[in-house]
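Crash report, auto-generated. Payload:
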Amino acid sequence: MGPGSDMYRQQILDHYKNPRNYGELEDADVEHVGENPMCGDTIKLFIELADDGETIDRVSFIGDGCAISQASASMLSGELRDMSPSAVREMDRNDVVDLLGVELSPMRVKCAVLAEKVAQDAIAIHLAGKADEETRDVRKRCPARGDIL
Ligand code: FES
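Recovered output after restart:
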């Protein structure tokens, strides 16, 4: 355990007790809920994109779960702001574990990455919907091509 781990533990507790960006975003472009199947803890994430769709403008979450899962959602909600959807998809578990700053058992890593998984699934769903929309637009613009697709 590193010398700064007490500070990180305090920080985790603070995010757990006073979660940042907590609540629902009414105009969210994406909403997605995920749970840790091992315990049933949940996080629902709300993401609002900038008008050009290239960056995340606002993020909020609601959730119910252990201190690590809720604190990591709180910390991640701040990190996601101004990120591009593709950068979110490229995040890996170490990014969140580094945010927490403490050593975690494999079980606790699952708690820590719940919010990240929800964010990545949310973005994947959003991008799939967008691709679907674009395909429909192409078909609308090119009815003949649409017939043979
Ligand atoms: Fe359920 Fe941590 S114990 S996410």
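Post-recovery validation: The beta strands are 30-35, 42-49, 56-64.
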